[in-house]
Amino acid sequence: MEKPQERWELRLFDGFELRSGSERLVLPLNSQRLIALLALRVSTTRGQAGGILWPEAPERQAGGRLRTTLWRVRSTGPAIVERRGGQLSLAAGVDVDVRTWLRSARRALDGQGPAGPLDARTVPLVGDLLPGWYEDWVLVERERLRQLQLHALEEVSAQLLGQGRHAAALEAALSVLHLDPIRESAHRAVIAVHLAEGNLGEARRQSEACRAILLRELGVGPSPLLRALLDGAEDAGDPGHRQAGAALQAPVVSQAGAAPQVPAVPPPGAAGTGMPGVVPAARSAEQPRVDRPRVDRPRVDRPRVGRQPERSAREAERGAEAVPGPAPFAADR
User: Fold this and answer.
1) Domain tally for the chain?
2) What is the span of the domain harbouring residue 41?
């Protein structure tokens, strides 16, 4: 009876770890690098592996380092690496967390859950790939997985929103913001859920949060896509506001079909107004003039109240010259 193959679990998210149950296998750094490379690639040739792991070394020297690394991996006991011809790959008994997660992410992008309908946990949240490793091949794979995770979660949020599952859609969108707070498409996904629920205040609050973090971190404002999302929602949700705005902007036309009446703005002190800067209102053609009968009121003479103002000395002198004096007596002649 054949002995069952030993199962190993390889974790690359949040650091390198290889274990079988409670047993954790400790490996040198070069052995870890080789196993991680084979986990991220289905298979590779010996020459490719040596060139990727030791790019600064000549080909012959890189091949020698690879042989030493393979010997150290085999000396640990379990069969982790398989060699078939010139190809290197991981053994079939090694389960890699990155491969398991990739299957979930690709199913989510295709609109499928792991065993049923989509959910916010369809794409599990994972950490960075091999943090602290700065080789070029690690950096490329790290960014590829990060972007795939963000897009998969946004796709899950959009599909859940289309199904009317607002709470699950909001959870998936907020998961994207947790991973990348300055990602505007994630902010738009959160705003879309709030607008679908009719929460315009929540949508505005999220928009202001997006504007603030973009200005603080990048020195830029939101894109027109975010502004159009809010503007379109406000217009669609308030048709009376649009009608009122259109009425205010439209010119006023009289009932008789006359030309639009545009209010004149006269210069200050225009003639015939009685007040500076006021134009007398024109009588409308639709309102004919009505002649009212005139009522004659009797005139009442009222006595003057108060003293007459005293004339000045010049007026008094002029009055004395104009009035002739009394005729002289005969005895004076």
Assistant:
1) 1
2) 8-92
